[in-house]
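Homework-ish question, so no full write-ups if that breaks the rules, but can someone show me the predicted structure for this set?
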Amino acid sequence: MIQHSIFVWSISIIVANFATLSSIMDFTSNSCILGLSPMDDVTDFPFRSLCKEFGADILYTEFIAAEGLNHDAFKSKRKMTISDAQRPVGVQIFGADEKELIKCLESVESVSPDFVDINWGCPVSKVASRGAGSGMLKDIPKLLKITQSVVRHSSVPVTVKTRLGYDDDSRCIATLARQLQDVGIAMLAIHGRTKTQMYRGLADWKAIGEVKNDPQIHIPIYGNGDIVEARQAVGMYNRYGVDGVLIGRGAIGNPWIFEQTKRLMQGLPEREITVAERVDVCLKHLLASIDFFGEHTGLIVMKRHYAAYFKGLYNFKQFRTLLMEARTMDELMPLFDRISDYYSDKDGREACS
Ligand SMILES: Cc1cc2nc3c(=O)[nH]c(=O)nc-3n(C[C@H](O)[C@H](O)[C@H](O)COP(=O)(O)O)c2cc1C
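A: Not a homework solution, just the prediction itself:
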């Protein structure tokens, strides 16, 4: 009997170790890792799947309030939906309370993400004013304590996404990166702006590069900010040697940006995206949104994407208004046909004003 339980015990240790090993993911590669930067109300399940299909290597959920998960809030739980096809995918959490953040790990781990990301970068006042997101950049000791505690309690790697500092007078990223590395995070993604900058000015990639090229830094560093064209992603990668580039707004209406970047990195020219392909992919996105959210919410969610899919097309305003006003799929479907017909004799470039 004793022998039997020792046998079962040893097997469970082997299984447990294997589980730990298999959950360790590599945030580096021989080439640049291209990630879809998390965006609330944008990088939902359907959009993430689309970006994956077009070459995004790594995905994050939208940020999810730890307290929402702990209260079983439907929308917070829905944001955690991931699929195997999306892997590697991380669940991004935010909050200012250590206990809440630790507690929510139980729900997070129930969906088996490849990593958990802590958002220490959101500048939006309803988040930052409560000390969450980039609000925590005002209290670095607390930020480090919470991060360390999440690392200790998480069964999957913990990463952090943050900004250069709270404001220009307190840019702390060089020191903060070392401190975060010391508390055990597996990767750091840096948006090259401060909290007070919000989205103004330009992302400071030089500052990101300095962290990456700090000889004391050995965790992977991903850069983020203002990449809207494939050549910019290649440029930042070549110039600063970051391990990964996260693309946010530049992927809205342009999930091809990942594929195009990979083509450039392989020495291939960018592929022309025709209007017909834009229509097809936008429609596919719409159908996936309806499938995921239901018709009512799916249609509302897509309103954030239409203009971006067809950006630059001449005379598109008439269609944009109709797309925004449509209330049912029955109204929308013929519109896609009309857009296709209208631009059918032109390629992408010709169709641009
Ligand atoms: C609408 C919107 C929502 C965002 N939501 C999140 C979020 O949930 N989590 C996060 O870490 N960053 C969020 N961000 C910041 C982006 O991930 C990214 O850091 C920022 O937009 C800069 O990168 P970009 O210039 O490539 O867009 C959001 C940005 C936008 C525009």
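Now go work out the reasoning yourself. Hint: Residues 37-40, 42, 62-63, 92, 119, 121-122, 161, 191, 224-227, 247-250 surround flavin mononucleotide (CB under 6 Å).
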